[in-house]
């Protein structure tokens, strides 16, 4: 078998519910070592949430209604609205199904009511500000240029991991033997 170790293109068609993992040599400062959950993918484009980049600001500085003192994640460079992912066991009508176990919503008032009533635990949702978005064909082009590794199967608990700094490495390590090798690339190969 002839393997090109610098060809990160997984040749997998993009679908809602898949993960995008920034290839280890991606230099882009915003998306370097990013893991993005594709929340919607259709003929018009793609929307995703970056699940492994935590903000340094407190969520209360953005929205005074927040009832929890928790970290929030930088979903992407588009928009400044608050979004959240949640697990299947707290489904409600305004949520968009990402896959059988994950749902996406921006109805933050409903989340507040669940928190107030103790009907949701911290490990059942994740807060984001902004999202990652691509126009029609843009993400496919980036995948074809080896910017992203597409991961169709993964343990959803990794998205809610408190050890968010290791999500990039953990997803690659768990997905395949070749991807595991990618997970050990240094952040800056010049310093290797």
Describe this structure in words.
With 192 residues, this protein is of the alpha+beta class. It has one domain: 3-Layer(aba) Sandwich (VC0467-like), CATH 3.40.1740.10. Helix content is 16%, strand content 27%. The protein contains four helices and nine strands, in the order E-E-E-E-E-E-E-H-E-H-E-H-H. The protein has helices at 108-116, 138-144, 167-175, 177-182; strands at residues 19-22, 35-42, 45-50, 73-74, 78-87, 96-97, 102-105, 125-135, 148-151. Strands 1, 2, 3, 4, 5, 6, 7, 8 and 9 form a nine-stranded mixed beta sheet that branches. The longest helix is centred in the middle third of the chain and has 9 residues, at 108-116. The protein is globular.
Keywords:
4 helices, 9 strands, 9-stranded mixed β-sheet, alpha+beta, 16% helix, 192 residues, VC0467-like
Gist?
16% of the residues lie in helices and 27% in strands.
| Amino-to-carboxy terminus distance | 28 Å
CATH architecture: 3-Layer(aba) Sandwich
Strand content: 25-35%
Shape: globular
Determine and state the CATH class.
Alpha Beta
CATH superfamily: VC0467-like
Category from helices, strands and their pairing = alpha+beta
Calculate Rg over CA atoms.
Answer: 17 Å
Approximate helicity band? 10-25%
Q: What fold name stands as the CATH topology?
A: VC0467-like
Helix count? 4
Integer average pLDDT: 84
Q: How many structural units, i.e. domains? A: 1
Structure summary, number of beta strands: 9
Uncertain regions spanning at least 5 consecutive residues? none
């Amino acid at each position: 078998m002839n393997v090109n170790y610098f060809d990160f293109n997984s040749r997998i068609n993009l679908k809602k519910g898949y993960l995008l993992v920034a290839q280890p040599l991606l230099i882009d400062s915003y998306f370097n070592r990013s893991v993005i959950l594709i929340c919607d993918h259709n003929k018009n484009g793609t929307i995703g949430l970056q699940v492994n980049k935590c903000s340094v600001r407190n969520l209360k500085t953005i929205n005074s209604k927040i009832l929890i003192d928790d970290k929030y994640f930088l979903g992407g460079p588009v928009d400044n609205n608050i979004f959240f992912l949640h697990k299947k066991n707290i489904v409600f009508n305004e949520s968009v199904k990402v896959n059988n176990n994950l749902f996406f919503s921006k109805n933050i008032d409903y989340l507040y009511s669940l928190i107030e009533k103790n009907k949701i635990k911290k490990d059942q949702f994740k807060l984001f500000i902004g999202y990652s978005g691509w126009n029609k064909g843009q993400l496919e082009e980036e995948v074809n240029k080896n910017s992203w590794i597409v991961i169709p199967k993964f343990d959803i608990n990794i998205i809610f991991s408190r050890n968010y700094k290791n999500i990039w490495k953990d997803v690659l390590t768990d997905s395949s033997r070749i991807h595991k090798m990618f997970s050990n690339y240094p952040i800056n190969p010049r310093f290797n």
